[in-house]
Amino acid sequence: MRARLRGTEIYFDVDGMGLVPDGPRMRQRPVAFVIHGGPGSDHSGFKPGWSALTDTMQLVYFDHRGQGRSARGDPATYDLENAVEDMEALRRHLGLGPIVSLGTSYGGMVAMAHAARYPEAVSHLALMVTAAHGGFIERAQRVMAERGTPEQQAACERLWAGAFTDEAAHKGFYRAMGPLYAVRHDPAAAADGVARMIHSPAALNAAFGPGGFLRSFDLRPLLPRITARTLIIAGARDWICPPEFSAEIHALMPGSDYVVFEDSSHSLRVDEPERLFAALREFVSR
What we know:
Elements: E1 2-5, E2 8-15, E3 19-22, E4 25-28, E5 31-35, E6 58-62, H1 80-93, E7 99-104, H2 106-117, E8 122-128, H3 135-147, H4 150-161, H5 167-181, H6 187-196, H7 201-208, E9 229-235, H8 243-252, E10 257-261, H9 268-271, H10 273-285
Parallel strand pairs: 5-6, 5-7, 7-8, 8-9, 9-10
Antiparallel strand pairs: 1-2, 2-6, 3-4
Helix pairs in contact: 1-2, 4-5, 5-6
């Protein structure tokens, strides 16, 4: 499905029932926006695993502008500001009240910024393997120098340079980095996932290249504006958004819940899916 809004077209998909039979009545499940990372990726990595959550909530997946199945445009507009405004416009387009916001990696940055700008629009906020400012890039560069193979270091040099020229090179980055993204890396399953995904190198370059918007963003002053119940989940072995960045968000948001998945890297849904989905169900049901 597609929504025309804010001068672009956003692709979205809905998983699970909103209204469900409950004895003599119909009960409304909460609606959750599932916000993908990258930038330059799409929502397909959530499928089919996240369908497990449809016993608790109705899921809305969408692709950020210029990415996945959403319309292309000026790469200068593929930034955090527009991602937030597109997300809010989609919420209003769908006629929704307060939503559950489930943000992973860059999606967590979008979710944080959206919940701070539109606190009345979010009831529950889950921030997974993410960071509130651009310092995560310098930290990831140090991790890569210490732990990366020569192939992975070369792939990351291309990332820091904003030098992905086509989708094939972009896919090559994820193939090389797979063992760092997931402790339980399965090369065959990961290859299928990379093949299915529509990669958008222009969006990745705009974020991580020299002068990229993720290098200078800082949401920390905005976090006190967030009123939603908040859950923060980190992966103890995460190479790109290490737990210290999640702990920092937790410290700046009194009343938030914080948990570290000890057996996970950046891909929680690969490393500890049962624990992840149980935590999200419990969080939303409270």
